[in-house]
Specification:
- By secondary structure, this protein is mostly helical.
- It has a single domain, classed as CDP-alcohol phosphotransferase transmembrane (TM) domain (Four Helix Bundle (Hemerythrin (Met), subunit A)).
- The protein is 78% helix and 0% strand.
- It has eight helices and no strands.
- The longest helix is centred in the last third of the chain and has 29 residues, at 152-180.
């Protein structure tokens, strides 16, 4: 049974997860500006937000403060901060829209699957190594994109991020199949339903896969 108490909100790792949301304010502010100082502030905010993601898990283990609330807040804050922050890059810096839509679609599917599992088994699915790797790649790509000013290596990072979104989304999907005990026929159907929007994303955003017109 899911155990969430009000006092858990004030545990150190959960406060760090909540703090990540607030970094969106300065990130959006400085993304709308131009110049070296604005770029440095964006990079600094991304770096500190990434550190809170590292340390919330560290403090949860060290202080024995692993909670069901933390299992929800940690991945949720990761997803919202990364996707919303990247939308700011799309609006103000020409970041590829297709990548953000693809990432947001993956996160939405994970959220829906997580809710289905929680409803059926009262179990909250924690982030796995694929999810953490995807978060790291997305944050790194955004960081380098701001820093690089058209460096060719940025496009390689984007391709790797596309792949990490696909692989991590697939890994979560099969994990959900196991938890929900989905039979082979339904797995095939769900797989098709997952892939159709993926093709639509890339079909309707041609020329924007790597931020190029």
């Amino acid at each position: 049974m899911i155990d969430i108490k009000f006092r858990h909100l004030f545990y150190v790792p959960n406060l760090l997860s909540i703090l990540r949301f607030f970094f969106l304010i300065p990130i959006y502010h400085y993304l709308s500006k131009t110049g070296t100082y604005a770029d440095i502030m964006v990079l600094l905010c991304i770096a500190v937000a990434a550190l809170t993601d590292i340390f919330d898990g560290y403090f949860a283990r060290m202080l024995n403060q692993k909670t069901d609330l933390g299992k929800i807040l940690d991945p949720l804050s990761d997803k919202i901060v990364i996707v919303v922050g990247m939308l700011g890059l799309v609006i103000h810096r020409g970041f590829p829209l297709a990548l953000v839509i693809f990432l947001g679609y993956r996160d939405l599917m994970i959220l829906i699957g997580g809710l289905m599992i929680a409803k059926r088994s009262s179990e909250i699915i924690e982030s796995n190594v694929w999810g953490k790797a995807n978060t790291f790649m997305a944050a790194t790509t955004a960081f380098v994109f701001v820093l690089s000013d058209g460096w060719w290596g940025t496009y390689i990072l984007m391709v790797i991020t596309y792949l990490s979104i696909l692989f991590s989304g697939t890994a979560y999907m099969f994990r959900g199949f196991e938890k929900l005990q989905v039979d082979t026929g339904m797995r095939f159907l769900w797989g098709i339903m997952f892939l159709i929007p993926v093709f639509l994303i890339f079909y309707f955003t041609p020329g924007h896969l790597l931020g190029m017109s």
